[in-house]
Design a protein that fits this description.
alpha+beta, 3 domains, nine-stranded antiparallel β-sheet, 9 strands, about 45% helix, globular, Metal-dependent hydrolase, transmembrane helix
Length: about 350
């Protein structure tokens, strides 16, 4: 989830907790820090592959947030000595876990069991930036700040909002999944599984990913009604075993196989072999808003491979959500992929 939503959960939590911490100094700023601190891992990145593996890793797990909360509580005691350590540590841990929840409800997911498991859990309760979700939270914060007599009650309602809205979205998504499956059945389209998740400007737009044999179908459901519904986008599913095989030459491909949820591939022949462009449908959309935004731009989390005529990896590049990398292959340096394949 975006930083504004994380910080607003800390601010809301601080306003709600002031009644229980009458002697707490700088309580609200400390709560905002507690709600943000699991994202501290962004300062320790060392390239795109490191970011894929460790962002939303141990610092956003049940285990990691516990120790972050203890450390933050220890620092807070230096500022507010009369505040009981266990009590403030419990508050900070609750707010850090709220951060974990807000990451968990996005399709990006988070490794809540790290370091004991690197499985990335996701509940699909909100798009990573949700204006309705965040603006409603900010409006409740303003109301709590202005209406002092009702501040505690409003702040508690605000904290409930951070859980109620995603849970409601999960319920709507389950209904839409059934509706879309019935639509496919009525049209006689064979499929294996239908998955519906919030998309940009949800709850209006919803992303639909259909597993259909060797392909994925990508579609958008508009709750305001599709005036001219287009045919779903059909893409070829990527073979994760093949990605892991390429990972024997360059570890980024094995990491990508682990990271992606719905990987697909675009293949083209070149004079020197084949060019493979891998994407993840989590970061692809037929939503009109995102389609407009990414028009003419490269999609994030795109991994490109150039294979020579023998099928070996000759060059590769990666377009990440934050960072990019361009390489001539297995450990080489120099020209980069785009020049290499010309």
């Amino acid at each position: 989830m975006d930083p504004v939503t994380h910080l607003s959960s800390g601010l809301m939590g601080g306003l709600a907790a002031r009644k229980w911490f009458p002697d707490g100094k700088f309580l609200v700023p400390a709560c905002m820090l507690a709600a943000w601190i699991p994202d501290v891992d962004i300062f320790f990145g060392d390239g795109p592959e490191f970011n894929l593996i460790y962002h939303r890793g141990i610092s956003t797990s049940f285990f990691g947030t516990f120790f972050l909360a203890l450390a933050l509580a220890g620092l807070y005691k230096l500022v507010s000595r009369r505040t009981p350590f266990v009590k403030i540590a419990a508050l900070f841990y609750a707010l850090a876990l709220t951060h974990v929840w807000l990451d968990l409800i996005t399709t990006y997911g988070t490794q809540i069991l790290a370091p004991f498991s690197n499985h990335r859990f996701a509940l699909d309760g909100a798009f990573i930036i949700d204006p309705l979700f965040t603006l409603t939270a900010l409006a409740l914060i303003v109301a709590a700040w202005l209406i002092k007599k009702r501040r505690h009650a409003i702040a508690l309602i605000g904290m409930a909002w951070f859980f109620a809205y995603p849970l409601a979205n999960m319920g709507v998504g389950a209904v839409l999944q059934t509706v879309y499956a019935h639509r496919l059945d009525a049209e006689g389209i064979a499929y294996d599984h239908v998955h519906v998740t919030p998309d940009a400007l949800s709850p209006r737009f919803w992303k639909v990913v259909v597993t259909a044999g060797p392909d994925y179908l990508l579609d958008t459901m508009d709750l305001f009604g599709d005036r001219e519904p287009a045919a779903p986008l059909r893409v070829k599913r990527a073979d994760k075993a093949f990605l892991r095989k390429l990972g024997e030459q360059e570890s980024m491909f094995a990491t990508y196989a682990w990271f992606t949820k719905w990987p697909y591939v675009e293949e083209t022949d070149t004079p020197k072999g084949r060019r493979l462009v891998f994407h993840d449908l989590r970061f692809t959309s037929t939503n009109p808003v995102l389609a407009w935004y990414y028009r003419g731009k490269r999609q994030p989390f795109t991994l490109t491979a150039q294979l020579d005529n023998s099928g070996r990896l000759a060059a590769w590049s990666y377009e990440g959500g934050i960072r990019t990398q361009d390489n001539t292959g297995t450990g080489g340096s120099g020209t980069g992929l785009e020049e290499k394949i010309q």
